[in-house]
Specification:
Layout: H1 11-22, E1 27-29, E2 38-41, E3 50-57, E4 74-80, H2 86-96, E5 102-107, H3 110-125, E6 130-135, H4 153-165, H5 170-183, E7 185-190, E8 209-212, E9 223-226, H6 230-242, E10 250-256, H7 262-274, E11 281-288, E12 298-304, H8 308-315, E13 326-328, H9 352-367, H10 369-379, H11 384-397, H12 407-421, H13 424-442, H14 447-462, H15 472-481, H16 486-500, H17 516-519, H18 525-538
Helix pairs in contact: 2-3, 4-5, 4-8, 6-7, 9-11, 9-18, 10-11, 10-18, 11-12, 12-13, 13-14, 14-15, 15-16, 15-18, 16-18
Length: 539
């Protein structure tokens, strides 16, 4: 898999340099490249307790991204997923430790424990006051005598960092860090493994499965579970966490493992609040990328029952922009639509043949969702099927609100529904189509002519014509042929849709930005949807 790197051996050095050159926080690095890669606060005066952490790279923004006022004083960067050397850790300690002493925050991996531990011993031989805590928040493997340190480490960085910034002594800071470690529980889930620079990607997780409890270096999880969506994924994570926490309010740290989109992370936050442990979550940190695993398509949840004082520490402002801040969980606020935007729907009425007709049409779009998405992926953004299916599902749910016995009002009502429930330009165009068809029907036009009036208005506003490679290529000939019956209309729609596969240029829609080589041989998904609908109506 291609990656935006130069040489594997230079990736950490260049990443650190990129961070230092663009950070809004006053940072510096120790001399000693390439073997010693330590990021330090450039504004540090050694008057307070120093916090030093680090480990293998690949977890960005951890750890260097959390160096700054109120958090870490120094971060020691190893190679990707490899512990930094004893000399590198010692260099970091010596650079930032003054009379107040230094706390090392170490994740529970053998290499980190050994190298940071030996560096601490050597620093003490220099006469420095150094203590060390080991974070072991991962609950994925309950029988493991040495649990891994994962994203819960950020709770330690933040709370200990706030105390140190406020002038607490080393014993107080160390005691607080140990208390946080004892109460923090974390677990992660991913749909895929990560890609280590310069190495082949491990294909361990089958399609339709998710791995629960995998490590931040891509280590295998405790089990692979069926994946059916965000809700089931969060339910599996919540079930593991629920057995380890009490009834007191907790702070949840919602961590992106690197390759999950911002949109997905917001969905996961929504599901966490609705989950079995949602009632126990009073505050959240994130969702954000904090302790990543390169490009892993996953997330982790860390819980901690923070006291009032610890909540204040978590909420205290810091220098590093990578810290997303602390937020209280609150009900979603809903504000009424402004006057004039709330749709005035006609009175609902029942007409079973019309209901059955509409539901049948909606089911065609729902059934075709994946096919149309796959077709749209060839010439657009791959969502035409989902857009149409979503609108169809919404229309089915709205059936009891529609004036089914009055076709004139029904056209307008469908247009209103689509304008609210169907996204993208196609939603607007179809809303215009049905609204104009309703206007035509109310002026006395028969249904066929009313539909053609809707098409004319849609073309006038949308600007597309036959031959422009849009749904018009199937809809226009179908309506022209409708006087000959539904079979003739279906045949015309199919011919129009198939013809779009021969058109090397699109003059409207998102496909207009796609080159001819990608378009040829693939029908326009909107035209294909129209063809399938008329084929259904023709029986």
């Amino acid at each position: 898999m291609a990656q935006f790197i130069n040489k594997r051996e230079d990736v950490v050095i260049e990443a650190v340099e990129g961070l230092l050159a663009t950070s809004g926080v006053p940072l510096a690095r120790l001399d000693g490249y390439p073997h010693i890669r330590v990021v330090v606060r450039a504004d540090w005066d050694k008057s307070k307790v120093a916090l030093v952490s680090g480990g293998g790279s690949g977890h960005e923004p951890a750890h260097a991204g959390f160096v700054g006022v109120g958090m870490l004083t120094a971060a020691v960067c190893g190679d990707v997923f490899a512990s930094p050397s004893v000399d590198a850790v010692l260099a970091g300690i010596l650079a930032v430790t003054g009379p107040a002493g230094c706390l090392l925050v170490v994740k529970n991996y053998t290499g980190d424990r050994l190298n940071f531990g030996l560096a601490a011993e050597r620093a003490r031989a220099f006469g420095l006051n150094v203590s060390m805590v080991v974070v072991d928040d991962d609950i994925a493997l309950p029988d493991l005598p040495q649990a891994r340190g994962v994203a819960g480490t950020l709770f330690v960085h933040k709370i200990a960092g706030a105390l140190a910034e406020n002038g607490a002594d080393l014993d107080t800071v160390t005691s607080a860090a140990r208390h946080v470690i004892a109460g923090t529980k974390s677990i992660g889930m991913s749909l895929d493994t990560c890609t280590v620079p310069g190495s082949p990607k491990e294909d361990r997780i089958p399609k339709g499965m998710a791995e629960l409890g995998l490590g931040i270096h891509g280590e295998a999880g405790v089990e692979q579970v069926d994946f059916s969506g965000a809700r089931s994924a969060m339910a599996a994570v919540a079930a593991k966490l629920k057995s380890t926490i009490g009834e007191t309010p907790h702070v949840a740290l919602i961590n992106n493992l690197g390759g999950t989109s911002v949109l997905e992370m917001s969905v996961l936050a929504h599901e966490l609040i609705r989950s079995d442990i949602g009632a126990h979550i009073s505050h959240v940190v994130g969702p954000a990328s904090m302790m990543t695993s390169l490009d892993m398509r996953g997330f982790s949840i860390s819980l901690y029952p923070a006291s009032r004082e610890e909540l204040a520490a978590l909420g205290q402002p810091v220098g590093p922009a990578s810290w997303p801040g602390l937020s209280r969980v609150h009900p979603v606020s809903v504000v009424a639509l402004p006057d004039g935007l709330t749709p005035i729907m006609p009175l609902p009425s029942e007409h079973k043949p019309t209901r059955d007709f509409l539901i049948g049409c909606c089911n065609v779009m729902i059934t075709a969702e994946q096919d149309l998405n796959a077709l749209d992926a060839k010439s657009g953004d791959g969502d035409t099927g989902s857009t149409l299916a979503g609108a169809a599902r919404a229309l089915v749910k709205a059936m009891d609100r529609l004036p089914l016995s009055d076709h004139t009002q029904l056209f307008r009502a469908i247009g209103l529904e689509l304008s609210q429930t169907m996204g993208g330009s196609s939603g607007v165009l179809l809303a215009i189509f049905f609204a104009a068809a309703g206007d035509g029907a109310s002026s006395g036009l028969p249904i066929r002519d009313a539909l053609k009036a809707g098409l004319a208005r849609m073309q006038e506003i949308g600007g597309a014509n036959v031959g422009d490679r849009t749904m018009i290529d199937a809809l226009s000939p179908a309506l022209d042929a409708l006087h000959g019956g539904l079979k003739a209309a279906a045949s015309a729609a199919r011919a129009g849709a198939d013809r779009t596969a021969t058109l090397a240029r699109a003059n409207a829609g998102r496909a207009a930005y796609i080159n001819a080589k990608q378009l040829q041989g693939h029908a326009d998904p909107g035209a294909e949807a129209v063809a399938r609908l008329f084929e259904h109506l023709a029986g």
